[in-house]
Design brief:
heterodimer, A: Rossmann fold, 5-stranded parallel beta sheet, 4 helices, 8 strands, about 30% helix, B: about 300 residues, alpha/beta, Rossmann fold, 2 domains, 9 strands
Amino acid sequence: MVSSDDFKKLDKILLFNDSATNDILNDFIGSVLKSIETQARSAKAVGFSNTVIIGIKEGGVPLAGLIKKNIKNHFKIDCEIGYVDMTLYRDDPFTVKKPIKSTELPFDIGDKDVILVDDVISSGRTVRAAIDEIFDFGRPKSIRLAVFIDKGGRELPICPDFVGKKIEAGKDEIIHVDIISKEKRVDKIIKT
Amino acid sequence: MSFDKKDLISINDLTKSDIYYFIETAKEFKKISLKDIKKVPTLRGKTVVNLFYEPSTRTRSSFEIAQKRLSADSLNISISQSSVTKGESLKDTILNLESMKPDAFIVRHHESGASYFISKITKASTINAGDGMNEHPTQCLLDIMTIMEEKSDIGSLKVAIIGDIYHSRVARSNIYGLSKLGAEIYLYGPYSLLPRFKDSRNVKIARSMEEAVKNADVIIMLRIQKERASYYFIPSIEEYRNFFKLTPNLLSLASKDVIVLHPGPVNRDVEIAGSIINENKTRILKQVENGVAVRMACLYILLGVQKN
């Protein structure tokens, strides 16, 4: 656990501490679950066999896992889960910034209802790239976007279906979401 | 991990960790070839010129497929139908092509050093796809990738490289690359086709086929190069067959989990017994599969550097 003094040195501002982060997280996952349930009912489908969860690497990975776990706890259904790494689909002037990671979609995506999960949305370009990549694997029936933090600053017509919390932040400010460690937290990091 | 050279001319351009970085990247690209839509948009708008002054099936098609899977535009210059036949120099050819603003040249040439020469007169990335008797770095990378798929630690392996070592750019790149990763290398071939150097710590010259293959974890058989070795260096193909062919008997001396590599094209029953190939003891087709992934990784990393 980093003390608040250490955070000041790093130009980090703690936005939500453990319990606040947990509350947002629970509401967020609750709204996703509720919507999946409604959709499943209206389609008269039994269960959620048509729903798959896809996390955008790296930030969306733990969130996707949490959503899967909660669906299992509430509805006793084991959704398929996959991950996309959109590095190869980026739209910015091409330079190799970091090693590419694996896209793992170990199931047929055709005709599935996809819940696409990421931790933070800003310009919307990551989501655009992730959707493009998913389409290279097949034609899903629908894609809905769940993001934990919306920090604004959209540059593309992309609007998440589920948002945990809106936070106003500038382009040079990074919202850091940590929901894996014991003490969950959301920080704002100001680039200097 | 970052890489900041624009060209790949020699495997010695890469450090040990660079080699692993290229292989790790290639592993990811290998998955693209298994998708329904075998294409990513990463290199859209990039132009790659394939300049092959020597015949090639594998390397050329491998590079071309790599370019297509990354959405680059590729241009193939067929030397027999180009101005080269009218006497244009290599430098002039490159300078003229350079004016068309390519982003990369893939070069195969019968002269050692041709790729290096080209890399110095163009701003485009240059990848050596084999230059004379010098080097073939992407072949070395795909061989390392194929070995790493089955062997966890290259540093603990005994690798035998057998055949026309002297004329082989594949052997040269593999000796540099594998010894950099710590493998123990044994070379063997006709005396006239062995390099003239003393044993080093990692690289030794074996005195017999048996010594070379005994307990080997990897055996790399080389093609007898009719265009280079011709018949000046060996009395006859028949004699070569008798003394330097990898037979099932010899193979049984190697380690239990030995894998046999060959850069292709294979002269069946000259370098290697046909039965060894038929019984799936070689990894020749794996090498070809990995070749596409390695070349995608090379294009991706080198063209990604250029913009910086």
